[in-house]
Amino acid sequence: MSTPITLRQLEIFLAVAGSGHVTRASQTLHLSQSAASMAIAQLERQLDTPLFERRGRSLKLTERGRLLATEARELLARVQALPTLLSGAGEALRGELRITASQTAGCYLLAPAIAAFARAHPQTRVHCHIGNTAVAVQSLLAHEADVGYVEGRVSQPDIVAMPWRRDRLEIVVGREGPQPRRKLDASQLRKLPWIMREPGSGTRELFDQAVRTAGLDPLPATQTFNDAEAVKEAVIQGFGAACLPVLAIADDLREGRLIALQAPMLTLERQLWRITRRGSFDGAVLSAFETWLQSQQQQQPQSLSARSAATPASPRRPRSARS
């Protein structure tokens, strides 16, 4: 009978795969280089296949090595979750959760929820990396995150996307900037100086798609930022118009720093998505966190976008009032 593969072998294999070097992996795992090399060689013999190919001084996974890496990460994640899964009733929740999120979801929905969850479960560790939808997908595929929450639609065979929440965008200008009529037609849309998120952003994707669906030519960006707050600040300073999530601008609309414009030809509502790797395992901390998210959402049934839309903006102050 062949020698069974051990969890330690898989741990060493993943460390080498992640670093691309046996020496670096052995240092991380506090092993000798010879012990790490022997573990990899034995694993390759047990599986009767090469797992790495040498490229210069580095090691790259073969096709079968990449397949093993995917399965090994999931297996080790399940093993690491066992203590929490089997803990007795009343014991504190323990463990780590790695979240990847696009900006709207991460900054305006998840950040306060993570802080509250951490207070309720102080022995958990939640790490949230915020980028755009494309970055979130790559983080999942690279096994750098356990779950993602994004606004962009994902079409990737190795990613499972489930509807999470609804969101709405508004076209806005600053009270000190260009002041078109509140109801825009196609020609006025084209004349506005547009400040936009970067390509790959879910917000940018929805706006571009809405413009195409309305049969309009693409609207060029005069400025582009990879951060919603930077876009918002440029608009507040009067440099142009933008299309931003209501979640990001609700306070500014209420306080009159931004003015909402209507563009009836554009559909600016969207679905937010929960994304995971296909076949991935939801650990105890992730399950508890999502139960927490659901309970928080149920306590606030009226969406922020609906509240902000119902709240009139402050009257526009004269230009001389600007400090």
TrEMBL record:
Residues 5-62 form the HTH lysR-type domain. Keywords: DNA-binding, Transcription, Transcription regulation. GO terms for molecular function: DNA-binding transcription factor activity; transcription cis-regulatory region binding. Residues 297-323 are annotated as: Disordered. PROSITE patterns: HTH_LYSR. The keyword Transcription regulation applies. The keyword DNA-binding applies. Belongs to the LysR transcriptional regulatory family. This is HTH lysR-type domain-containing protein.
